[in-house]
Amino acid sequence: MSGTEPSTFEIYPAIDLRAGRVVRLRQGDFARERVYDDDPAAVARRFGEAGAAWIHVVDLDGAKDGERRQLAAVDAIVRAIDSVGITGRRPRLQVAGGLRTPDAVDAALSAGADRVVIGTAALRDPGFVAAAIERHGADRIAVALDVRGGVAVGDGWVAGSQGLAVEPAIAALSDAGVRTLAVTAIDRDGLLAGPDLDLLGRVRAASGADILASGGVASIDDLLAIRRIGCRGAIVGRAIYDGRIDLAEAIRVAQPAQPA
């Protein structure tokens, strides 16, 4: 193992929710949607049975509209994963989308999320994130750094969304106490074109936070490349649904070797 590789590496299978169904968008475009399943709870259960330690759930309608929409689906996922888990351990749940008020963050965590990912509100007001971390702890609050053309954007990635250049955004979030960043290369999301390793390396160099990579992952080799540059995990969606990555195998292969 190289000196940059983390001691642990987690794969976060993704469940993107729209109108109660499991979907994937291409490059965040709501007009380019593919439906994969009508039962998010069953998908979450399968991920847990495959050995996932974390499941990443995104309320796409909430991300677009600015408030949580998929409450019933998320509640069903919580109930589903409570009944599964390798060696008796329930998968942990990371929830994103529409978390733009303190009440929304509190409600998601109270409903069963182990960690929430704040996007738009964090870019607009790093103080919002600092307050959430003060209230809940840095382990339960992550921030989405969704990057298009060198700019971190929010508002569900819709066209015309304003944002911040990556380095100033990272600096502001670091000052707010953020210790986990979910970094998405929007232009690669849902395309199976491979991760943006340059972007991930740039973010890692500028931040002391744990980096969760997202966007473009198409193979186990991609996961190993992400691990080699020092990321602590990867969020994977379409590659699992399309059968390019077997989740159980990926979890086994991608875990770093431990020193003797």
How would you characterize the overall build of this protein?
- The protein has 260 residues and is of the alpha/beta class.
- The chain has one domain: Alpha-Beta Barrel (TIM Barrel).
- The chain has 11 helices and 12 strands.
- It has helices at 40-49, 60-65, 71-81, 102-110, 120-124, 126-136, 166-175, 197-206, 220-228, 238-241, 247-254; strands spanning 10-18, 21-26, 29-37, 54-59, 92-96, 115-118, 141-148, 151-153, 163-165, 180-185, 210-214, 233-236.
- An 8-stranded parallel barrel has the order 1-4-5-6-7-10-11-12, surrounded by 8 helices.
- The mean pLDDT is 90.
Q: How would the blueprint of this fold be written?
A:
Blueprint: E1 10-18, E2 21-26, E3 29-37, H1 40-49, E4 54-59, H2 60-65, H3 71-81, E5 92-96, H4 102-110, E6 115-118, H5 120-124, H6 126-136, E7 141-148, E8 151-153, E9 163-165, H7 166-175, E10 180-185, H8 197-206, E11 210-214, H9 220-228, E12 233-236, H10 238-241, H11 247-254
Parallel strand pairs: 1-4, 1-12, 4-5, 5-6, 6-7, 7-10, 10-11, 11-12
Antiparallel strand pairs: 1-2, 2-3, 7-8, 8-9
Helix pairs in contact: 1-3
